[in-house]
Amino acid sequence: MFSEELEKIDWEETTKTIYSKTESDVLRALGKEHCDVDDLMALISPAAAKYLEPMAQLSKKYTEERFGKTISMFIPLYITNSCTNSCVYCGFHISNPMARTILTPEQIEDEYTQVTSFDEQADDYITKPFKLAIFLSRLNALLRRSENFNTEVTELTSNDISIRLLKGEVYKQGKLLELTASEYKLLCFFMENPDQVLSAEQILGKLWDCNENYIDNNSLTVYIRRLRTKIEDNPGEPKRIVTVRGMGYKWNTVD
b/e map of 124-155 (b: 16 or more CB within 10 Å)? Predict the structure, then answer.
């Protein structure tokens, strides 16, 4: 166990070694392509305090070399269930009395296969062995979805405003409009529910900003005002997005 290995370390001697490191030790460690434990002690020593920026730059360089600019990792939570350490900062430490599920290597491989299959645009996945009736039912479900694919709405049009859903583009009288992600979502929600009074609560339940943070009533008012400046002929007297006092807002389809 990792905790048993830690118990073998003479921490008093290790601490003395770390504090004995000099700037020369730090520079030597920074210049090496492959560091050892002694180099690590130099890099975490007080002598390394003034070299934080070079260390950060090296860390960034090595991270991008090994992972690129985007790190994608498949680490299911149940992996931590197999851990037998007692790290006080970890909610999965062995002393925490909790229900744990530990999968076999075969089950882990099967789940990984399913996840990667969907990542590679698979529409469904079935594990072996499978029952014929279940296989046929899932196959029929896939066929129904494929039949309905071409019948799905790909464009919303109303009051000289057109939304091309597959491209995420909005046009007013044939002219492309520049909308933010939140404005686009808001406009889609209105045009998907024409002539219906939508309360602020209903809109807020569907709308969030580009960082996945829910917005409040004040922000909603700002979004609607900005959207009106882009889609209304006269934002001061809106005809498309109208306010229904005491109730909410409505997409008005009457030209």
Answer: eeeeeeeeeeeeeeeeeeeeeeeeeeeeeeee
Give CA–CA dist 76/78, Å, rounded: 5
Tell me which DSSP letter residue 120 carries: T
Cα radius of gyration (the chain): 29
Rounded Cα–Cα distance for residues 186 and 230 (Å):
13
pTM for this model (two decimals): 0.41
Instruction: State both tokens at 228.
Output: 């009106």
With 0-12 / 13-18 / 19 or more C-beta atoms within 10 angstroms meaning exposed / middle / buried, residue 73 is exposed
Q: What token pair was written down for 54?
A: 């070079």
Quote the DSSP letter at residue 244: E
The residues, any chain, with a CB within 8 Å of residue 110's CB and separated by 6 or more, are 127
Q: Where are the beta strands (DSSP E) in the chain?
A: 155-158, 161-164, 169-172, 175-177, 197-198, 241-244, 248-251
| Residue 48 burial (10 A CB sphere; 0-12, 13-18, 19+) | buried
**Which pLDDT tens digit goes with each residue over 140-174?**
777 776 665 555 668 899 989 999 988 889 999 99
Q: Rounded to whole angstroms, how far apart are CA atoms 215 and 182? A: 10
Tokens in use for 157? 């049009």
Task: Check whether the bond before 97 is cis (ω within 30° of 0).
Answer: no
Span 89-129, pLDDT tens digits: 677 777 777 777 777 777 777 777 776 766 566 666 666 66
